[in-house]
């Protein structure tokens, strides 16, 4: 309890404690860090910093950010070391062009400013700095000119990426190093620099002829200073710089200076850079502060500023920036976007590993920025990277490569992309083929509906500004010259983005984006499958991921109300809050393709509520899935049945108060004036005319309205779709995924579909917690999760699985579908795997309690992998938190998907939560012994059997290890008898092969045997036992209490023990009382000594009745198995039974009874029928012939049935029947 109180206090004081930690971090940074150097103490502190950085959640954001900054700085070499290394490089090299391009300068380009005052390397430092900073442009010449106390240099350059035939102006740059500080610099000194620059640009264009935009740049570097960010000295420096430049403002404009960059080196730190732009009257542009002068152009910040107000965040790398953009739009809600803008010098990013690494860097920075308090939960993200190195490729090849790279990024980083709400990725490249250089924009965008859909555009930049004036699309064949080219400054949020933001507000994903998640997960599944087969040196079903992997066709009502998949519409233009698609996908199980119907609420339409139109659409889509016999997946995110009022009446109706002067006495009725009543469409209201207060009134008795879908009609629709969902569960595979929330009828639809996956932030509720609080008259509940969160719905068996986010949710949907056949009429399909079916089962069940999951799936040990019964990696447990004394799931046996039911042998606990509405209520933990069925686990068993059989069509294996049912008062009151009977009901209805197997050291006794005995449904059920298993009514101690009691054990002693035999003989001949008493005592003592041993003998005797030999002899099991080889045996048995079932069912369609059909199949197969492997070999070799014979038998049976039906008709009636058939 003390630990709980400490944790509660810690969370209550989180803000104060965070402030204290930040203060300590400041002290560490300012005082301690410099003294610790590289001592062990410093290493320990770095470890602590890492722990602070890894704290999860926005509540720790400030601590995370501060600790991260300190840790990042600590990881960098000391300033003086880096400066010395850079100086040495400058002294050694003569080729500054190569140095400026080399990797050795990447970590020290800003440090060059600290060498501007070093006479030995000053000129080289200046030139290297200019060449490095302007490396993205075409530098035509660059020269440094020492001149007394002021070193100066100049260079001419043009924007890169401009076509050769374009009239791109030559621009001039000039740099001067002033020996003084900004504040100390004289007007004359600065004027001399401007005069020199003016001389250099004589005869050159000063401004662009077409736009009048200035062309040239001026750099002024000053002496080292210490200017803290946000400090008074910073304000003073900026003011002094603006004042200094203002003295030459007129001349700067005259000579065409576009920007003056003031560079102030910092001792021991990166330089401060202040950019004063001509368009801003040579005042500082805050957005460009401390940024390399060329970055504004390279990062295309101008595009952002057109539609967004930008706030710059601290970035980790020198070649990247992060901005928070708030849209420039009128309205209360202004969407936010986090922009990552980066420059890359490495052509390697156009490889799979390079691109993933680049995206991880961008996502890391976005992740860090998301912690800022200014960022909202709905803020989306966009990534832009400008690759400066030329790509040896043409645009079409670049586009093909881009599609491949984006697929890899989606596959490997999908969870992070979703978490950070990345809606667009842009990679700007320059493709070089021969002498031709083409600027290409590679894009992956969700703006058009599909999640991060790849596209590419050729850019046509303005030769003067370098800004792209139009983008022309590239298709598979190359540049689409007939396509529509466009100019996009940087799109503000369109309707689609606003919808996404609305959905993200409730922690869900826009309905259309689930299709992209499905495609990404499908790619991942293929990659995992192919990699696994390759690692095992096994042959996969196909060698590579097939083309045409995924396609989704939206189901839309046509004008006649018929649901069709050949109508197209723009994503997000739906007006009904329900969507559906017919999805085609090629999976490892079905490389030729399979189809699924996906239905989803659109929570952006009236909060996802169910109105009449939504109900009609849902019903039609569900019926479509049933008619096509396709699996039906429902993505639930809604607010229940739609409620509403006739809004047009609100301003019109009046109140008939009992006393106008005293409303507190109440009112008699509501009414309309005759004029207002006459203005309404006929049938809007019902009532009668009355005279009161000296006027005519229309007294209201009923409000009907003209809008269909605001009241009870919605409840009628809810009832309709509830019934439809129940029917769908019986007819096809149904699966529901709950995200965001699902309320009222939405919650019922999920339950009626039975199989449910629930997201952590996805409560299933009947009504909101605030409504319940009003009903109770006090604040009892504080969140929806208390009513229907995973902590409620998983332990009660409504939710089969709980996932953390929508990406994991989709992954589990796809995983579940992998066990399910193509249609409800098909059988399961085996997936070629890498786990040999003939391998032994390594895990050995023991008499002591063990984890049954290890028996089913195998597990890792320090000695290596211990294999279980099923294929490695194929077992998935469902309903893990409900009925814990039973384990259910799905797995593969030799690739064949199977339903699995097993027994928990360990002690478990059932948690019954406290009721917040009852102050006296307390949480209860009820222990449940292993190998026993309790009410919840019996219900779970019956539910699992139903799920396996309906739509999934799975063969079922039950690892039977139950000692019986719990029959105590509590459990009898808890309906154990009802739920145990439900197991029988479920098995009676089951239509697919069922194998009951008593595992090694397992036992099946009493009522537990009864409810799974194969005679319950002999058409499909078989029972097997292991050599070391047991089966009987009671356990040996129990049966000995009845059938081998103490007196029976004593008789056996006197029969077998020679000592007792002798004593008995002596006692019979004894005459004296002393002898009799002595002998009697000896006998009693001997009996007492032998009794424990003979109790064991009795138990052993009883146990011999329960062993596998007797079970086989009595015909209650089909065969006795050896555990190590059971996997191979049952694989062949299941495979054979599935093949036989297909033939028998085919005959059953012609009305042939099961036993007769089996006999006919046996006759067709001949001797092969008696052996599983021979049966399958016969089917593989002569399958067509066998099926042809079965088809003949089917025809004969149909003919016989039809003849019997026609026998009772007259000739005339027979003729009419035959005529109708034709």
Keywords:
1222 residues; alpha/beta; nine-stranded mixed beta sheet; seven-stranded mixed beta sheet; 38 helices; 46 strands; 40% helix; 22% strand
Task: Describe what this molecule looks like in 3D.
By secondary structure, the protein is α/β, with parallel strands linked by helices. Helices cover 40% and strands 22% of the residues. It has 38 helices and 46 strands. The strands form 11 sheets. It has a 9-stranded mixed beta sheet with strand order 8-9-10-11-12-13-14-15-16. Helix 3 runs antiparallel to helix 4 and helix 19 packs parallel to helix 20. The longest helix is centred in the last third of the chain and has 35 residues. It is globular and about 140 Å long.
| Number of H- or I-type helical stretches | 38
Biggest beta sheet attributes = 9 strands, mixed
Q: What percentage of amino acids are in beta strands?
A: 15-25%
Q: Report the span from N to C terminus.
A: 83 Å
Query: What is the alpha-carbon Rg in Å?
Result: 41 Å
Helix % is 40-55%
Number of beta strands: 46
Structural class: alpha/beta
Shape: globular
Low-confidence stretches: 33-40
Order of adjacent strands in the largest pleated sheet: 8-9-10-11-12-13-14-15-16
Mean pLDDT: 89
């Amino acid at each position: 309890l003390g630990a709980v109180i400490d944790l509660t206090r810690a969370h209550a004081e989180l803000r104060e404690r965070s402030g204290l930690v930040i203060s300590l971090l400041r002290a560490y940074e300012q005082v301690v860090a410099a003294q610790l150097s590289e001592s062990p103490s410093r290493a320990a502190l770095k470890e602590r910093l890492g722990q602070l950085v890894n704290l999860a959640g926005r509540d720790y954001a400030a601590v995370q950010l501060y600790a991260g900054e300190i840790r990042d700085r600590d990881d960098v070499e000391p300033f003086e070391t880096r400066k010395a290394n850079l100086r040495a490089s400058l002294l050694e090299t003569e080729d500054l062009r190569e140095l400026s391009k080399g990797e050795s300068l990447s970590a020290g380009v800003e440090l060059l400013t600290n060498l501007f005052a070093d006479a030995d390397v000053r000129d080289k430092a200046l030139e290297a700095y200019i060449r490095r900073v302007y490396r993205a442009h075409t530098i035509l010449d660059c020269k440094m000119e020492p001149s007394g106390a002021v070193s100066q240099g100049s260079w001419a350059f043009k924007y890169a990426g401009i076509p050769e035939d374009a009239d791109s102006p030559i621009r001039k740059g000039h740099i001067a190093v002033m020996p003084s500080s900004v504040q100390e610099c004289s007007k004359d000194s600065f004027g001399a620099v401007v005069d020199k620059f003016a001389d250099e640009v004589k005869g050159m264009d000063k401004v662009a002829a077409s736009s009048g935009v200035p062309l040239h740049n001026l750099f002024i570097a000053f002496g080292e200073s210490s200017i803290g960010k946000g400090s008074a000295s910073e304000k003073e420096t900026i003011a002094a710089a603006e004042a200094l430049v203002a003295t030459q403002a007129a001349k700067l404009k005259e000579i065409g200076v576009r920007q003056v960059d003031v560079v102030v080196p910092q001792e021991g730190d990166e330089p401060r850079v202040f950019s004063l732009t001509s368009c801003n009257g040579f005042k500082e542009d805050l957005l460009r502060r401390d940024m390399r002068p060329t970055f504004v152009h390279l990062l295309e910040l101008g595009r952002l500023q057109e539609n967004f107000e930008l706030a710059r965040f601290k970035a980790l790398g020198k070649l990247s920036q992060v901005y928070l953009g708030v849209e420039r739009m009128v309205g209360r809600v202004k969407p936010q976007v986090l922009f990552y803008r980066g420059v890359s010098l490495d052509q390697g990013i156009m490889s799979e590993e390079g691109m993933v690494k680049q995206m991880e860097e961008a996502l890391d920075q976005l992740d860090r920025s998301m912690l800022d308090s200014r960022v909202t939960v709905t803020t989306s993200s966009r990534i832009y990277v400008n690759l400066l190195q030329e790509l040896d490729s043409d645009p079409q090849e670049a586009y093909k490569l881009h599609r491949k790279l984006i697929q890899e990024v989606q596959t490997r980083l999908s969870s992070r992309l979703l978490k950070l709400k990345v809606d667009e990725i842009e990679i700007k490249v320059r493709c070089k083929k021969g002498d031709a250089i083409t600027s290409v924009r590679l894009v992956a965008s969700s703006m058009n509906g599909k999640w991060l859909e790849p596209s590419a555009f050729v850019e046509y930049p303005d030769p003067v500004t370098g800004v792209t004036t139009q983008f022309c699309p590239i298709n598979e064949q190359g540049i689409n010259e007939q396509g529509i080219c466009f100019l996009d400054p940087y799109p503000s949020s369109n309707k689609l983005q606003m919808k996404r933001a609305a959905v993200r507000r409730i922690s869900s994903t826009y309905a259309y984006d689930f299709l992209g998640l499905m495609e990404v997960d499908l790619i991942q599944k293929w990659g995992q499958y192919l990699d696994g087969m390759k690692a095992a040196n096994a042959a996969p079903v196909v060698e590579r991921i097939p083309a045409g992997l995924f396609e989704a066709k939206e189901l839309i009502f046509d004008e006649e109300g018929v649901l069709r998949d050949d109508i197209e519409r723009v994503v997000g233009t739906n007006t009904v809050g329900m969507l559906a698609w017919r999805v085609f996908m090629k999976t490892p199980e079905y490389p030729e393709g399979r189809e699924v119907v996906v239905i989803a609420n659109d929570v952006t339409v009236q909060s996802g509520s169910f109105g009449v139109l939504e109900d009609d659409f849902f019903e039609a889509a569900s019926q479509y899935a049933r008619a096509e016999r396709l699996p039906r997946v429902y993505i639930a995110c809604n607010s229940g049945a739609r409620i509403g009022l006739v809004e047009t009446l609100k301003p019109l109706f009046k109140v008939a108060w009992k006393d106008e002067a005293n409303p507190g006495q109440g009112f008699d009725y509501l009414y309309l004036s005759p004029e207002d009543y006459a203005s309404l469409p006929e049938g809007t209201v019902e009532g009668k005319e009355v005279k009161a207060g000296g006027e005519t009134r229309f007294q209201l008795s009923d409000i009907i309205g003209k809008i269909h879908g605001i009241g009870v009609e919605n409840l009628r629709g809810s009832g309709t779709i509830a019934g439809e969902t129940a029917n769908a569960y019986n007819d096809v595979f149904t699966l529901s995924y709950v995200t965001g929330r699902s309320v009222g009828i939405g919650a019922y639809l999920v339950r009626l579909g039975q199989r449910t996956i629930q997201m952590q932030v996805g409560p299933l509720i009947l009504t909101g917690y605030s409504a319940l609080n009003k009903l109770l008259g006090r604040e009892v509940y504080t969140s929806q999760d208390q009513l229907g969160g995973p902590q409620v719905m998983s332990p009660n068996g409504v939710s089969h699985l709980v996932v953390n986010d929508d990406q994991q949710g989709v992954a589990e949907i796809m995983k579940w579908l992998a066990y399910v056949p193509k249609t409800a009429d098909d059988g399961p399909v085996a997936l070629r795997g890498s786990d040999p079916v003939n391998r032994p089962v390594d895990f050995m069940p023991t008499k002591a309690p063990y984890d049954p999951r290890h028996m089913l799936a195998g597990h890792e040990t320090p000695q290596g992998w211990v294999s279980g019964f099923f294929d490695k990696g194929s077992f998935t447990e469902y309903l893990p938190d409900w009925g814990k004394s039973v384990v259910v799931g799905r797995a593969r046996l030799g690739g064949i998907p199977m339903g699995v039911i097993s027994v928990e042998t360990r002690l478990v606990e059932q948690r019954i939560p406290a009721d917040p509405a009852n102050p006296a209520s307390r949480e209860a933990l009820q222990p449940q012994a292993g190998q026993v069925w309790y009410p919840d686990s019996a219900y779970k068993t019956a539910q699992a059997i139903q799920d396996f059989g309906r739509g999934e069509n799975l063969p079922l294996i039950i690892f039977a290890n139950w000692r019986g049912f719990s029959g105590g008062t509590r459990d009898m009151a808890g309906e154990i008898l009802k739920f145990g009977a439900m197991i029988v009901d479920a098995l009676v209805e089951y239509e697919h092969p069922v194998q009951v197997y008593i595992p090694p050291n397992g036992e099946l006794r009493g009522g537990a045997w009864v409810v799974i005995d194969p005679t319950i449904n002999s058409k499909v059920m078989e029972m097997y036992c292991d050599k070391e298993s047991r089966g009987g009514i009671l356990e040996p101690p129990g049966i000995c209490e009845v059938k081998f009691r103490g007196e029976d054990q004593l008789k056996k002693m006197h029969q077998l023990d020679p000592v007792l035999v002798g004593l008995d003989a002596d006692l019979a001949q004894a005459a004296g009382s002393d002898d009799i008493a002595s002998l009697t005592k000896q006998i009693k003592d001997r009996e007492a000594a032998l009794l424990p041993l003979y109790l064991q003998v009795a138990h052993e005797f009883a146990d011999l009745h329960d062993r596998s030999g007797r079970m086989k002899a009595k015909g209650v099991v089909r065969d006795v198995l050896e555990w190590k080889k059971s996997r191979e045996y049952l694989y062949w048995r299941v495979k054979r039974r599935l093949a036989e079932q297909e033939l028998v069912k085919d005959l059953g369609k012609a009305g042939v009874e099961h036993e007769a059909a089996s006999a006919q199949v046996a006759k067709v197969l001949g001797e092969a029928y008696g052996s599983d492997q021979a049966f399958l070999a016969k089917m593989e070799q002569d399958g067509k012939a066998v099926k042809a014979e079965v088809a003949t038998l089917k025809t004969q049976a149909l003919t016989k049935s039809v003849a019997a039906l026609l026998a009772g008709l007259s000739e005339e009636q027979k003729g009419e029947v035959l005529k109708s058939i034709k």
